């Protein structure tokens, strides 16, 4: 077994032993979707939303919420903990290098988020009749580029945070603005035009637009893709520049 495979298996095993992370990434977004779906008014078509129901808009929101939790709450705290406890430094002198650990964390969190995506889509369809994306390949592309942006944000927080406590504090500070831009409190489509245009310049605001467009059968908007990919490139560059193994 290669060192990278061994690290990946170990990190996956440790991740499954973290009930908090499993709940907030896998369960909570879909649970929020179910709670909102039980509100009668959210299941009624709204002319102001182009005939869509509010619950239709919250399936993409649940997906984005899972990415935000994984990117800015869970992964930075884990990596900062490993650095603070000297695990990254000790790995540097073994066949399993710190880069293997970083890759394993990205893979594990990506798989957890993708599982949450499928869960939200299936529950939305089964419980509330939310249609599956009419443009599945475009929807998948939007999910993947947004996931890359979320995990690059996590890498940035892990890079600049010298301790677990600071990583958690920074994660909390950015968590709520990201939730707002993703439409957790107010769907992006329902925002005033000026606010919507500003929000769509953020990675999750642009992602919300991409998911809604592809869910309706359209192709991913190149402008939205450019915004999400641009944020990913910038955040990845910051993470690489400032990340320290010890």
- Helix/strand-derived class? mainly alpha
Uncertain runs:
none
Overall pLDDT, averaged? Answer: 90
Globally, the shape reads: globular
Say how many strands there are.
0
What is the straight-line distance between the termini? 27 Å
Let me know the largest β-sheet: none
Helicity level: over 70%
How many discrete domains?
1
The number of helices is 10
Topology as a string of helices (H) and strands (E): HHHHHHHHHH
Oligomer: single chain
Estimated radius of gyration: 18 Å
What fraction strand? under 5%
GO molecular function, one term: ABC-type transporter activity
Domain ABC transmembrane type-2: 20-246
GO biological process, one term: response to antibiotic
Transmembrane segments: 21-42, 57-79, 100-124, 136-158, 170-188, 222-243
Word description of this protein:
- The chain has 246 residues and is mainly alpha-helical.
- The chain has one domain (3-242).
- The protein is 75% helix and 0% strand.
- It has ten helices and no strands.
- α1 crosses α5, α2 runs antiparallel to α3 (54-84) and α6 runs parallel beside α10.
- The relative contact order is 0.15.
- The model has no long low-confidence stretch (mean pLDDT 90).
- One of its GO terms (cellular component) is ATP-binding cassette (ABC) transporter complex.
- One of its GO terms (molecular function) is ABC-type transporter activity.
- Its main location: membrane.
